[in-house]
Design goal:
Largest sheet: 7 strands, mixed
Number of helices: 18
Shape: elongated
Distance between the termini: 47 Å
Strand order of the largest sheet: 3-20-21-19-18-23-4
Structural class: alpha+beta
Radius of gyration: 26 Å
Strand content: 15-25%
Helix content: 25-40%
Length: 512
């Protein structure tokens, strides 16, 4: 009954508000007076209210009142008794027990033979669904003229700062319902608005995906409240929820935990089933927890797609020289940004849409970081200058096949560990999935041709959609012809499928 009354009150409030407030702050850029280019994202849609210039004080007051009402309802529900939940066992990747296919070497004589056209029929096609909608605050967060001090912290080597109240703080007397509600009520006061506004702006300016943004808030909260404290967890959860993300608070035996909902199934992490969704604890896995049922309208689950590499500071790795054995002119020097490695290492292995093969698309669709790309691509482009599509792809393929050392993940990492392209350029060893991810990234970026990944039990290969006529093994899918290119079939040219691959069990994974 209580929830029905609250829902009715919120509905009435929404009806009374201007249309812009109902859609979560979607007032026009002109009326919001926000320069989109400076923030790297549409700040009017992000719910950053600025100083309210360009729209009436009455409308700004309505937005503020709406947000206050939502927070008041949240605090009221937080004071109600939290429910006990047991965790569900972590899900493991379905291919965990598959034996990896060992790399095979093609002889130079076989590699020189002319390829004949042969259609490889693969019926199963996986098209990962990417959700590019960013979470937005349910109501714009208005900046305030309150006196502030700068809170300085670092994330990925970036020196960052946000405004914090100069003469205000908050403390948790415990993790009881009332203790958490009291502290949340303090954070909802307007003097904390500027901190929320600044965090949302940093999300856009530093090109932070949802996961990177959450990790940044962790570091920001630790700088203010101390690493690992209940206050730090609460502040992180507060800013994340005010940014529009779906979170729940939990009491794990006296330790406050933030649980986040995600659009993905995350492997090797236990979870809690709540409100028909899977929630994962951010700080530490637990078996039992008391969960706060309070929530906000239109809150969005976290996405694990990485549309842009997060901007970071720079700490150079030792320079590597990577040379193709067949084409010695394909020799490049490359360094990687060591400050990005913690982000890649923290990234949860997951799937989307109920298909575990989509995880490789998430890695393959992630761009190479800006500085490494700026260093690497001109060298490769110079080596490939004036060549046909087939010649360019042949050289990139042999470069990936022979410039990198193959090793099994179990031996190096103790288990499966897919690499982002930057990681393959950094670490001394890689396997079939890492090679195919890097190869398809380079072909799309440098040659400008579409690619797919091709999955066989225990093996990941790739194929390229040439606009020129290129002979060899090919796959017809989506109205396009993709010629097989296997970065783990060492020395094999374009159009060669590794021996003993079972096409009946193979699957195509579409890439951007």
């Amino acid at each position: 009954m209580r929830n029905y009354i609250i829902a009715t009150a919120v509905t009435a409030l929404l009806t009374a508000l201007p249309a812009a407030a109902q859609n979560g702050g979607g007032f026009s850029q002109q009326r919001g007076g926000v320069n989109q280019q400076q923030g790297g994202f549409n700040q009017s849609r992000s719910g950053v209210g600025g100083n309210s210039s360009g729209f009436s004080q009455n409308r700004a007051s309505n937005f503020s009142d709406y947000r206050q009402q939502l927070n008041a309802q949240y605090i009221s529900l937080t004071r109600e008794r939290w429910q006990n939940f047991d965790s569900y066992r972590a899900q493991t990747p379905p291919d965990r027990d598959e034996k990896p296919v060992a790399p095979i070497q093609m002889s130079e004589d076989d590699a020189k033979k002319e390829r004949q056209d042969r259609q490889v029929v693969i019926d199963a096609v996986v098209t990962p669904k990417r959700d590019n909608e960013r979470a937005q605050p349910v109501a714009p967060v208005q900046e305030t003229p309150d006196e502030t001090a700068l809170l300085e912290f670092k994330y990925l080597g970036n020196p960052l700062s946000v405004r914090r109240p100069k003469n205000a703080t908050f403390r948790l007397s415990g993790v009881s319902e009332n203790a958490v509600a009291d502290a949340w009520e303090v954070l909802c006061q307007k003097q904390w608005n500027n901190l929320v506004v600044d965090c949302i702006k940093l999300r856009g300016q530093k090109q932070l995906c949802d996961w990177a943004y959450l990790c940044m808030l962790r570091d920001m909260s630790a700088a203010l409240c101390g690493s690992g404290t209940n206050e730090a967890t609460l502040l992180m959860a507060f800013v994340y929820s005010q940014s529009g993300y779906k979170i729940r608070l939990g009491d794990a035996g006296g330790r406050l935990e933030m649980l986040y909902a995600t659009k993905h199934i995350i492997y090797n992490r236990s979870y809690f089933n709540f409100d028909g969704e899977q929630f994962y604890t951010f700080n530490k896995e637990v078996k039992q927890i008391r969960i706060n049922a309070a929530k906000y309208p239109k809150e969005q689950s976290l996405s694990l797609w990485v549309p842009q590499t997060p901007q970071s500071g720079w700490q150079s790795s030792t320079q590597r020289t990577l040379t193709s054995k067949r084409y010695p002119e394909m020799s490049v020097h490359v360094t990687c940004n060591k400050l990005l490695l913690p982000f890649y290492e923290s990234y949860p292995t997951s799937e989307v849409g109920g298909n575990f093969m989509t995880r490789w698309a998430m890695y393959a669709n992630t761009p190479i970081s800006d500085k490494t790309r700026t260093e690497l691509y001109p060298q490769l482009q110079q080596a490939l200058g004036g060549m046909s599509q087939q010649q360019q792809v042949e050289r990139l393929l042999n470069w990936v096949q022979t410039a990198f050392v193959y090793e099994y993940d179990d031996k190096v990492w103790g288990g499966d560990r897919a690499f982002f392209p930057d990681e393959t350029l950094y670490y001394p060893y890689c396997d079939c999935e890492d090679r195919s991810i890097l190869f398809t990234r380079l072909v799309r970026d440098i040659v400008g041709l579409k690619c797919i990944l091709v999955y066989y039990p225990g093996h990941l290969a790739s194929a390229v959609c040439f606009t020129d006529q290129v002979n060899g093994d090919y796959i017809q899918t989506g109205g396009r012809r993709y010629v097989v290119c296997d970065p783990t079939y060492i020395g094999a040219p374009v159009g060669s499928t590794m021996p003993k691959m079972d096409n009946a069990s193979a699957k195509v994974i579409q890439l951007d």
